[in-house]
Amino acid sequence: MRARIRDTELYFDVEGSELAIATSHFQQKSIFFVIHGGPGVDHTTCRPVLSPLSEIAQLIYFDHRGHGRSARGNPETYTLENNVEDMEALRQYLGLEQIGLLGFSYGGMVALTYASRYPSHVSKLIPVVTAPDSRFLALAQTKLAQEGTPEQNAIAQLLWQGKFASEQQLQAYFQLLGPLYSLTFDPVKSMEVWRRVIFNPDTINQAFGGFLRTYDIRAQLPYISAPTLVIGAEQDWICPPQFSKEIAQAIPNAKLEIVPNSGHSIRADAPQALLKLISDFLA
Questions:
Q1: Which domains does the chain have, with CATH numbers?
Q2: Which of 82, 125, 120 has the alpha carbon at shortest distance from 102?
Q3: pLDDT tops 90 at residue 24
Q4: In the chain, N or C terminus with fewer CB closer than 10 Å?
């Protein structure tokens, strides 16, 4: 399905019904926007693992502008600011008073910004393996320089500089750095996943070569009023758990969970633990 909003068109899909059959009545389930990370990839990176949650919540997947099946346009419009306002426009388009937010990595940054700007429209917030500001960039560069292979460091320069030239280069980056993102990395299975993804290097170039360098939501976190579960990964190389702890400390009454034996690709390393944490929080 597609929604014409603001100056673009977003692709979205819905998994799970809004109403669940109870003993003698219909019970309304929570509605969650699933906010994919990247940038540069699409919502299909989230969907296979999260599908079981559709039994207890209605999941609305969507691709950010310029991503996946959503419309492409001027790369200068591929910003966090527009991602946040696009999400608000999508909420209005669907006629929803409140939405839950489940955001991964960059999607967590979008979720945090939205929740601080539109607190009355957020029912619950779950930011996963994300960071509150641009400090994660320098830390990740240092860690990669110390622990990465020469090949990993070479291709990562395209990330730090925002200079991916093709979809093939972007896919090669994620494949080559796979062992850093996931402790259970399997190159064959990873390629199967990436073949389903629609890449756009312009979106990740705009982020890492531009607006993520000045990203900082820390001062706005105390304005978040929704019940919040912050999930971090113990061995995350690019958004280490120290940032999850900072986010949880800044949001009033937030709950923090750090998943052991997991890297940034928590959906691959600890899918059952992730689903249980989310399910328990919703219950």
A1: 2-134+217-282 (3.40.50.1820)
A2: 125
A3: no
A4: C
Q: Is the pTM of this model over 0.90?
A: yes
Question: Where would I find the H helices in 148-228?
Answer: 150-161, 167-176, 178-181, 187-194, 201-208
DSSP notation for 63-86: PPTTSTTSPP--GGG-SHHHHHHH
Tokens of 202: 């312009």
Q: What pLDDT does 28 receive?
A: 79
Distance CA 37, CA 134 (A): 15
Least Cα distance to 203 among 88, 5, 74, 66 occurs for: 66
- Say how far residue 175 (Cα) sits from the centre of its chain: 19
- Please report, for residues 48, 50, 125, 252, 253, the alpha-carbon distance to residue 141 in angstroms, rounded to integers and kept in the order given: 30, 30, 29, 31, 32
**Residue given tokens 């009033």 in the structure block:** 252
Residues 6+ apart with CB under 8 A from 209: 161, 162, 163
Write the pLDDT tens digit of every residue in 54-82.
999 999 999 999 999 999 999 999 999 99
